Amino acid sequence: MAKITYVDHEGTERVVEATNGESVMETAIKNSIPGIDADCGGACACATCHVYVDDAFMEKVGQPEDMEQSMLDFAENVQANSRLSCQISVSDDLDGLKVTTPESQH
After folding, report:
1. Is residue 25 part of a domain?
2. Domain membership flag for residue 106
3. Cα Rg for the chain, rounded, in angstroms?
4. For residue 37, which of 27, 24, 25, 54 has the smallest C-alpha distance?
5. Residue 84 is part of a domain; what is its CATH number?
6. How many angstroms separate the CA atoms of 64 and 85, rounded?
7. Of 8, 27, 36, 43, whose CB neighbour count within 10 A is largest?
8. Residue 94, helix vs strand vs coil
9. Distance of CA 16 to CAs 24, 40, 95, Å?
10. 89-104: pLDDT as tens digits
11. What is the predicted pLDDT for the residue at 105?
């Protein structure tokens, strides 16, 4: 299990335990994390689970695949560290991961 910290646009942090193999989005939904709506249920078809990944974890989560990048093109305020949380799979390597939700999703 990995601990993930979700930070909202106002700086409020919520730390939750995540199950390996689930997505960062699924973990957020199970724990009622505000700012991650996941309208498409994790199908990489909506960008309502957009997060900013802490720089220390960018290499571990990797770069978005083509389909994810296409969806990010529709998201607001995309940055170099933007990812869709439905496309980040939880593993022990991500213990301590910190993601921030954009203000536009609140």
Report:
1. yes
2. no
3. 12
4. 25
5. 3.10.20.30
6. 10
7. 36
8. helix
9. 10, 22, 11
10. 999 999 999 999 998 8
11. 82
Q: Could you give phi then psi for residue 6, rounded to 5 degrees? A: -105, 130
User: What does pTM read for this prediction?
Assistant: 0.94
Count how many residues are written for the chain. Answer: 106
Q: Count the helix, strand and coil residues of the chain and give each as a percent rounded to the nearest 5.
A: 30, 25, 50
Largest CA distance in the chain: 32
User: What span, in angstroms and rounded, lies between the C-alpha atoms of 84 and 68?
Assistant: 7
The residues that bridge with 83 in the sheet, in sequence order, are: 51
User: Computed from CA positions of residues 30, 34, 39, 42, in that sequence, does the dihedral angle turn out positive or negative?
Assistant: negative
Task: State how far the Cα of 34 lies from the Cα of 13, in Å rounded to an integer.
Answer: 11
Supply 35's token pair: 């700012």
For 12, the domain range is 2-101
Of 1 and 49, more confident: 49
Spatial distance between the Cα atoms of 58 and 80, rounded to a whole number of angstroms: 10
